[in-house]
Design a protein that fits this description.
Radius of gyration: 24 Å
Number of strands: 0
Strand content: under 5%
Largest sheet: none
Order of helices and strands: HHHHHHHHHHHHHHHHHHHHH
Oligomer: single chain
Shape: globular
Length: 532
């Protein structure tokens, strides 16, 4: 099995994440043209319950597996890592089967009593098989990440996304003649097929790696490394021990994700009611909130592929360093992760701030939502560094602290939405402000927790340099947009200004030594060119 360094693993996941984010805009644009906005609404209605159930089944499992497998590999005990894999599969498949059966049995009641539209029934039933599929995929992704082999996760996610897009649009088109409910269910079936193919890719990669191993694996009894398994331990006791450790890591992480899922549900309810109190019509309020969550937020989270890649690659790397009590390496990895999050997220924030209206016009044919994007763009950097900080807390056995920080942020956000959005002077802008304050508060709390835990101090000069480079890039983008000779062709005007800004940004980043030749040498594929 090919083990990558922290930088290489991050770059591999980053490339896959960016591809998936870009591909993800295809169904956002194409699906409404097939099933219409009402059909998309039906498609989305069942998702909150699905997300909550999947969070219960798999929430913190991948991270827990990655951490435990990384520790086992660091101690030279690959056989113990396999035991972790088997125990995790048993747990998640059992939970997935139970919740799938419960969902199928309770689907009529949920869709007729809890959900506001009974037409969600077909979509709700179509999504239930994904619970087992996602449960299996989550375990294998965590296993490969613990091995610090990011290729299987990256490959499966890209293939899954491509298959999902093709199948959801095709199935929606085929079933649309039967009605909106069936068209939405067809889109959901396409999503399930994509998840299934992604799972098969992971299983194939695991089988391929196992067949390629020479000889037999080292047994726990013969290993003289730190992490050994005593001969007197029976298999049941060993599995119980693994399960106890697994749950100890996974449960707090799952709790944190549950806070996020429930927070999202409550956010939609509170926002709608607050806007109603402000005197805004229900249809207008729904459209405003839909624009915020369905158009503006996805744009802001586009660089999230970068931060999630950093977070995923950071967990096994920090866990391995923590197992060796290597504080110097922990600090080094944290500085690398935060510097990469700032440097790679900054140009996105600049473009979304300077060119907010042209960007929204090109993507959505709507310039009105540009004002919301412009307000949120400068604060997006807090979102981009939040994921690596949270991953650090989880890798260093402080998932409970991350959960508390997330919960505090959620309570602040809900309170601000209720207070500001109910004021006619703010309206939907109140929700925008609340989301910004939430991102700042949670990021600062995570940073404070990491600092207290390991005595970590972020290099402020890197932050100052990044801010200066952003200002220079912003000036370049604005000048290019106003003076380049493409004023009559909007998309060319946008691309030329953004492209020139990115080139300027890259040049200044190297001049400021935020990125060095040594960093480029570590990048897969192109690194060997720079090495020469």
């Amino acid at each position: 099995m090919n083990k990558q360094s922290f930088i290489k693993g991050t770059i591999i996941l980053l490339a896959a994440g960016i591809i998936n984010r870009l591909l993800g805009f295809i169904p956002r644009i194409a699906l409404p043209r097939i099933i219409g906005p009402e059909g998309v609404g039906i498609y989305q209605l069942g998702y909150p319950f699905f997300i909550v159930l999947v969070t219960i089944i798999t929430g913190g499992i991948p991270l827990a597996i990655a951490k435990m497998v990384a520790e086992a590999e660091g101690a030279g005990n690959s056989d113990y890592a396999k035991r972790i894999l088997r125990t995790s599969l048993t747990l998640t498949v059992t939970l997935g089967s139970i919740f799938m059966l419960l969902s199928l049995l309770l689907a009529p009641w949920v869709t007729s009593v809890i959900l506001p539209d009974q037409r969600v029934y077909q979509t709700f039933v179509s999504m239930t098989p994904m619970m087992i599929i996602i449960a299996v995929s989550a375990v294998y992704r965590g296993y490969f990440q613990g091995k610090q082999n990011m290729v299987p996760s990256a490959a499966s996610s890209i293939i899954e996304t491509i298959v999902r897009i093709v199948c959801m649009l095709w199935f929606a088109h085929l079933l649309m003649p039967k009605g909106l409910a069936y068209g939405a269910a067809g889109a959901m079936l396409g999503t399930a097929v994509g998840e299934l193919i992604g799972m098969f890719v992971l299983l194939w990669q695991y089988s391929r790696n196992e067949r390629s191993k020479p000889g037999t694996m080292k047994t726990p009894e013969t290993s003289n490394q730190q992490l050994t398994i005593r001969p007197e331990e029976t298999n049941p006791s060993m599995h119980r021990s693994i399960l106890k450790r697994l749950m100890g890591i996974a449960v707090p992480v799952t709790g944190g994700k549950m806070v996020g899922s429930i927070s999202y549900l409550m956010e939609s309810i509170i926002t709608a009611r607050s806007l109603a109190i402000a005197g805004i019509a229900t249809s207008v309020a729904t459209a405003q909130y839909g624009a915020l969550q369905g158009m503006v937020i996805p744009l802001l989270l586009l660089p999230g592929a970068i931060t999630m890649s950093l977070a995923v690659a950071l967990v096994p790397s920090l866990s391995e360093a923590a197992a060796r009590k290597d504080l110097v390496m922990i600090h080094k990895r944290m500085n690398q992760a935060l510097r990469l999050a700032f440097v790679t997220g900054a140009p996105f924030a600049v473009i979304m701030y300077i060119l907010a209206e042209p960007l929204c016009l090109l993507l959505y044919n709507n310039t009105e939502i540009g004002s919301m994007l412009k307000i949120m763009a400068p604060f997006a950097l807090f979102l981009y560094v939040q994921a690596p900080l949270q991953a650090a807390l989880q890798a260093l056995d402080r998932p409970g602290r991350a959960l508390i920080n997330t919960l505090i942020g959620a309570l602040i956000k809900m309170s601000l939405i209720l207070y500001l959005s109910s004021n006619p002077a703010f309206g939907i802008k109140g929700a925008v402000i609340a989301i910004i304050v939430n991102s700042i508060a949670v990021t600062l709390l995570h940073g404070y927790s990491v600092s207290r835990l390991i005595g970590f101090r972020f290099k402020m000069m890197d932050f100052i340099k990044t801010a200066a480079v952003m200002l220079i890039m912003g000036a370049g983008v604005l000048f290019g947009y106003q003076h380049f000779p493409f004023m009559t062709i909007p998309w060319l005007q946008f691309l030329s200004a953004a492209g020139a800004g990115v080139i300027l940004y890259v040049i200044v980043v190297f001049m400021a030594k935020l990125v060095t030749l040594r960093d480029l040498i570590r990048v897969p594929i192109i690194g060997k060119w720079f090495n020469r």
